[in-house]
Amino acid sequence: MSKVKVFQNEEQLKKAFSEKNIRVIRIGEKRVCLARHGQTFYCFEHLCPHQMHPLSEGQITEFGEIVCPLHEYRYNLKTGTEASQRCRDLKTFKVDINSEGIFINLY
After folding, report:
1. What pLDDT score was predicted for residue 18?
2. Looking at beta carbons, which pairs linking 40-46 to residues 24 or more positions away fall under 8 Å?
3. How many angstroms separate the CA atoms of 16 and 2, rounded?
């Protein structure tokens, strides 16, 4: 399983997510977070790489980072890079929006 359809169309996706909204999506046995920042959608692993706290409880900054509420580690939504390089980077997954639907690529 590498490419999974999560929404039927972009309209449905945008209705489900307000600005800076984060949701957990279950794909088989895997959980990932899907988040909206501006008009862009990002997908990343559900748990913070530092101490495995759920990032769905975090906040998205105006700079496009997800901040873990436990120890305030900041990860770039696009690249997954941890701002201070205190732990491994966050795994990110490509969100593909096309005429067939909204897909998440789990490599």
Report:
1. 86
2. 41/13, 41/17, 41/95, 41/97, 41/102, 42/77, 42/78, 42/92, 42/95, 43/92, 43/93, 43/94, 43/95, 43/104, 44/75, 44/77, 44/80, 44/90, 44/91, 44/92, 44/93, 45/90, 45/91, 45/92
3. 23
Please tell me the distance from the alpha carbon of residue 52 to that of residue 70, in angstroms, as a whole number: 9
Q: Which CATH class is domain 3-105?
A: mainly beta
What's the whole-model pTM score?
Answer: 0.91
